[in-house]
Amino acid sequence: IEGYEDNPILPLEISVESLEAIVTNIARNAWIAKERTSEKTSDDLTQEESAAIHLYTMEWKPANNSLYALLNAALRSEDRDCLVPYFYYLKLLLSALWKLPSVRKTVWRGVKADLSEQYSVGKIFVWWGFR
Which of 2, 3, 15, 39 supports an S-S bond with 88, CB 3.0-4.6 Å? Predict the structure, then answer.
């Protein structure tokens, strides 16, 4: 991802303003995420950073209108320009994620489909969405 890093870190409410035409109820859900996070967080995260992570994990109805679904679709798109509206939010989110301690673990995710034929044992795959 190129270009987001030049943006300043902004409060969550401001960092999602450019997404209002793309992500349904983003302002309301950003407010909810901030209300659900405390001002004092672990790992030296600010409340804004903690709320940005929380917002990413939230799912609203329908699920494909959730921030994580739309951002992951933009990250997977060959048209890198579709990421530009996400830049302020990405700056805040990634600044938070970089502060978290590195942990090496297996993470499982449920998928309502059989994907086994798409993946060969021993082959490396890159998923551009956050997982």
Answer: 15
Q: Is the pTM of this model over 0.85?
A: no
Nearest 5°: the CA angle 83, 71, 65 is 130
Q: Cis check for the bond before 101: say yes or no (omega within 30 of 0).
A: no
Residue-wise pLDDT tens digits, 46-67: 999 999 999 999 998 999 999 9
Q: Is 25 left (phi over 0), alpha (psi -120 to 50) or beta?
A: left
> Rounded distance, CA 124 to CA 79, Å?
23
> Phi/psi zone of residue 68: left (φ > 0), alpha (ψ -120 to 50 degrees), beta?
alpha
Q: For tokens 């933009």, name the residue.
A: 74
Indicate the SS3 state at residue 126. Answer: coil
Structure tokens at 75: 């990250």
Q: Where are the alpha helices (DSSP H) in 1-131?
A: 12-15, 26-35, 47-57, 67-76, 87-99
